[in-house]
Amino acid sequence: MQVDVSQIKDRVAQQAEQIHRLRAELAKAIVGQDEMISRLLVGLLTRGHILLEGVPGLAKTTAIKSLAQTLSTGFQRIQFTPDLLPADLIGTMIYVPSDGTFRTRKGPIFSNFILADEINRAPSKVQSALLEAMQERQVTIGDQTHPLEGLFLVMATQNPIEQEGTYPLPEAQVDRFMLKVKITYPEPDEERKVLDMALDGTAQPIRPVLTPDEVSAMQEAVQMIYVDDQVKSYILDVVRATREPGEFGMNDLVPLIEYGASPRASIYLGLGARAIAFLHGRGYVTPQDVKDISHDVLRHRIILTYEAEAEQTTTEDVIQTIFNTVAVP
Fold first, then answer.
1. CA 68/CA 280 separation, integer angstroms
2. Can you give the pLDDT at residue 241?
3. Are 269 and 293 in contact (CB under 8 A)?
4. What is the C-alpha radius of gyration for the chain, rounded to an integer number of angstroms?
5. Helix, strand or coil for residue 135?
6. Do 32 and 186 form a contact (C-beta atoms < 8 A)?
7. Is 108 buried (19+), middle (13-18) or exposed (0-12) by CB count in 10 A?
8. Are strands 153-158 and 50-53 parallel, antiparallel or unpaired?
9. What span, in angstroms and rounded, lies between the C-alpha atoms of 291 and 181?
10. Separation of alpha carbons 48 and 238, rounded Å
11. 99 contacts 60 by C-beta, under 8 angstroms
């Protein structure tokens, strides 16, 4: 197995220069926010959808748009509003009087990168249409089903402050997002650079640096990264601990967790850990890779009880307790 891991590492090293070019291009528009950029790359490398949550003005939309611009792919920004209709998203059937037939007019969902801006402002019918596209990677218009592009990613933003005029996302849809990334304020020196770029007009245009074929090659390399059986068992133990914390000696968490993480959490922890290993130039996954991606994979999959809310216990606290308790291989 050492030979195989060594070969994988060589392939990862060959593609490291592409990641450096991608990060350098993104740095033209995004100052700091390294964790957000890293998580966007994880989604790109694993074909996973991402939900970004943060107050306005933290470059969520800019980061997603910039990432799309670095790739020679299609990009559509959809502003979700309370009056948005499913047809505005997926398209509709248009009657053609000249020949008395109906033709399909495809909507903006038929692209590679979809920016769902303020996704929680659209009603349930729109969310259900998006849900099919995210999970099945297909869209049904009338009685016809249309497959989506091979490179298809939904990257959504959500404002946690304003609740007026919003619709809470269904748990089934939230679970389809591989990662839920919380964006925080930049450091003072980073914000100073942002201010200088805005006042001096020194922001540079983003140009494409990767092709879809190169992205596919990186995705294939990530799928080759070795995951040891002990690391797999560690992932399963972590996810099981969110459902049955008492089995791992965390009796204090039993009354705080209403529902634990779904099996998708196990899958996405493994895929996300592979992507983290790839970004670090390794051909194998370590338990630390699992820890690094854990909060983003688990925070929206653990549902707490009213007792936890009364005690002001957050999912972040629960996840940290689990990782402090579950034995590391």
1. 22
2. 93
3. yes
4. 21
5. helix
6. yes
7. middle
8. parallel
9. 15
10. 20
11. no
- 105 has which bridge partners? 92
User: What single DSSP character describes residue 110?
Assistant: S
CA angle, corner 256, sides to 252 and 261, nearest 5? 110
The sign of the dihedral angle between the CA atoms of 49, 51, 52, 56 is positive
Domains of the chain (ranges, CATH numbers): 35-184 (3.40.50.300), 225-325 (1.10.8.80)
Amino acid, res. 71: L
Find, among 279, 312, 275, 306, the residue nearest to 290 by Cα.
275
Length of the chain in terms of residues written: 329
Characterize 143-156 residue by residue with b for buried, 16 or more Cβ atoms within 10 angstroms of its Cβ, and e for exposed. eeeeebeebbbbbb
Residues 6+ apart with CB under 8 A from 43: 49, 50, 153, 155, 178, 179
State pTM to two decimals.
0.87
* Per-residue tens of pLDDT for the chain, all 329 residues: 444 677 777 777 777 778 888 888 888 877 777 888 889 899 999 999 999 888 777 777 788 888 888 887 888 888 888 888 888 888 888 888 888 788 888 888 998 888 888 888 888 888 888 888 888 888 888 788 888 877 888 888 887 766 665 677 778 778 889 999 988 888 888 888 888 877 887 777 888 888 888 888 888 888 988 899 999 999 999 999 999 988 888 888 888 898 889 899 999 999 999 999 999 888 889 999 999 999 999 999 998 889 888 888 888 999 999 999 998 88
One-letter amino acid at 250 equals M
For residue 173, the number of C-alpha atoms closer than 13 Å in the C-beta half-sphere is: 22
